[in-house]
Every structure is written in C-alpha cells, then in structure tokens.
C-alpha cells in the first residue's frame, strides 16, 4: 500500500485492495521487495477488462517494470479470451500516456470531472486496446 500512497493523490484504502483480489492482481518483486503492481477487473460476459490500478515505486520507475506488469496482465487476459481492455489516465500524466500508447493503447474517450465533483477538477483519457486471439500473446507481438 506504500507504493499506492506514493503513486496517487487519492490512494486506495485496504478494503479496495482486498476486493480487487478476485480478478487479476499481479505484483512485481525484485530482491524480495515489492516494486510494483497491477490490478485488473475482468467482465467475462462482455469479454472486456479494465485495468483499475498500476503503480511502480518511485525508486524503480523508468526501468521497464510497468511494461513487464502490463504485458503479463495482457497475456493473462488473452488466455482468458478477453477481447478488449481499457484504463483511465489523467491528462497530466504524460509519461503514463506515452507508455500506454507504446503498448498499443489508443485514446477512446475523454472524461472531464468538474471541480465540484473532485478536489480541483480533473480530465482523464479512457484508453483502449483490442487484444489478439488466444493463439498469440501480447509479449510475442512486441
């Protein structure tokens, strides 16, 4: 939970993490230390998934750890015959947007929350990736 607190202005509470364990919750460890995680919700009926949260400890950013986590998550989704995955990212998170675009995500929508809804008004991109069929993995394509 420390990584979440260091990565987001509105960190999740412990119960959010516990409820997220039902779908895909991957952690990346280096030398026995958790350096990052990805949490994904799978909607099997819709053949769709949503990446709810991805974070890498600030001391480990820029080393490809987020790419490793996302690719592993995408491979798991392909194996489950999920056809599409979405995520949201703040417009001001330029580095994250570039990372997601590098992995093939495209901007599908823009959501603007007024300042009376959030603390200072925020704009998010909804980014979407159409996944390959289960014969291929995401890692093998890149």
Please give a structural write-up:
The chain is an alpha+beta fold and 142 residues long. The chain has a single domain (2-141), classed as Aminopeptidase. Helix content is 29%, strand content 36%. The chain has helices at 2-7, 14-20, 65-79, 94-102, 138-141; strands at 24-30, 33-43, 48-56, 84-90, 106-113, 122-130. A hairpin with a 2-residue loop joins β1 and β2. The mean pLDDT is 84.
Give the strand content. Answer: 35-45%
Any idea what the radius of gyration is? Answer: 15 Å
Coarse structural class: alpha+beta
Following the backbone from N to C, one meets helices and strands in this order, namely: HHEEEHEHEEH
Number of domains: 1
Distance separating the two termini: 31 Å
Biggest sheet architecture: 6 strands, mixed
Write down the oligomeric state. single chain
CATH homologous superfamily (4th level) name: Gcn5-related N-acetyltransferase (GNAT)
The unreliable regions are none
Question: Which SSEs are present, and which pair or pack?
Answer:
Blueprint: H1 2-7, H2 14-20, E1 24-30, E2 33-43, E3 48-56, H3 65-79, E4 84-90, H4 94-102, E5 106-113, E6 122-130, H5 138-141
Parallel strand pairs: 3-4
Antiparallel strand pairs: 1-2, 2-3, 4-6, 5-6
Give the structure's gist in a few sentences:
The chain is 29% helix and 36% strand.
Features:
Aminopeptidase, alpha+beta, 5 helices, six-stranded mixed beta sheet, single chain, 142 residues
């Amino acid at each position: 939970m420390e990584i979440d607190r260091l990565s987001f202005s509105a960190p999740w509470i412990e119960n959010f993490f516990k409820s997220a364990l039902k779908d895909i919750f991957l952690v990346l460890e280096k030398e026995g230390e958790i350096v990052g995680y990805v949490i994904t919700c799978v909607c099997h009926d819709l053949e769709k998934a949503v990446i709810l949260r991805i974070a890498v400890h600030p001391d480990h950013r820029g080393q490809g750890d987020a790419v490793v986590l996302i690719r592993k998550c995408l491979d798991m989704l392909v194996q489950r015959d999920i056809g599409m995955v979405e995520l949201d990212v703040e417009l001001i998170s330029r580095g994250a947007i570039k990372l997601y675009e590098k992995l093939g995500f495209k901007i599908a929508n823009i959501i603007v929350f007024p300042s009376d809804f959030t603390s200072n008004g925020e704009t998010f991109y909804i980014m979407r990736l159409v996944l390959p069929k289960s014969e291929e993995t995401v890692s093998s394509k890149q």
